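Sequence in, structure out. Go.
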Amino acid sequence: MTRSPVLTALLALSVCACGRGAPPPQRSATAPPQQTQAATRQQGTTAQPAAPGPQNETEQATAAQESAGDSGEEDRGQSRSDLSLERLAALPQDAQLPSGRWKPGVNYDPLVPVQPTSVAPGKVEVVEVFWLGCPHCYALEPYLQSWLKSKPDYIEFVRVPVMWGPVHRAHARLFYTLEALGRADLFAKAFDAIQQQHRLLVANSEDETFKLQQAFAQENGISGEDFAKAYNSFTVSSNLQRAEQLTQRYQVQGVPLVVINGKYATDVAKAGNPNDLISLINDLAGAEHRH
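Output:
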């Protein structure tokens, strides 16, 4: 079976990028992050020049996999270990949970420096860094949905799409466009379309990607004009810039990643399993709320 370049890229990225500890795809040297965010599209306009193609993403993912076995991997692993030790050394004495069930550096990592949050005083922010093209994020979603129905009122849950490369940014723009339109309910449908129906909602050019995503929106009751307006809005562009910053500040190496109150980062592997991840989130958030 012949695969399209986009499908090949997404398959490579789902293996390389979703796994914890894998290096994120590198940005193309010819395309600054602002290029995707600043591009504007109108209904019926002529096609824009193609963005850095997913073929580049595939090559980068392959190169990352090939480099895993070279002599530099040991040095990189030692560097990551040293960074973890530095983080642990900077952890406040009262940051460890009194129950002793969860251990810093084992079940969660402290973020150094602590990152600012966007919630009101008395609230605890829980951020999930995710990617619509990530099967691991999709597998975690039922657990998060169940938790959202019973989580403490003081927890505010925020989703932040990872911004490693052009494919991730394209999916992030769709996410924020639906959010800007007040159609967060379509998040699950977009996830299903990509993961179950294999409708990738991304193409080899920005213009074709826009058309695919606009068609998805129209199928779900959003006019093409409204979608285009939100897609090119200042709000969406601002959210994309913030997601870019948080991807860097959180030092995201794999998704899904959960960040509690800008202080602690964890994931399913560190917690042990999805149910334990939910328990860990509640315990860390509870400790933050008590402080």
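Check: Residues 72-89 form the longest helix (18 residues). The longest strand covers residues 124-130.
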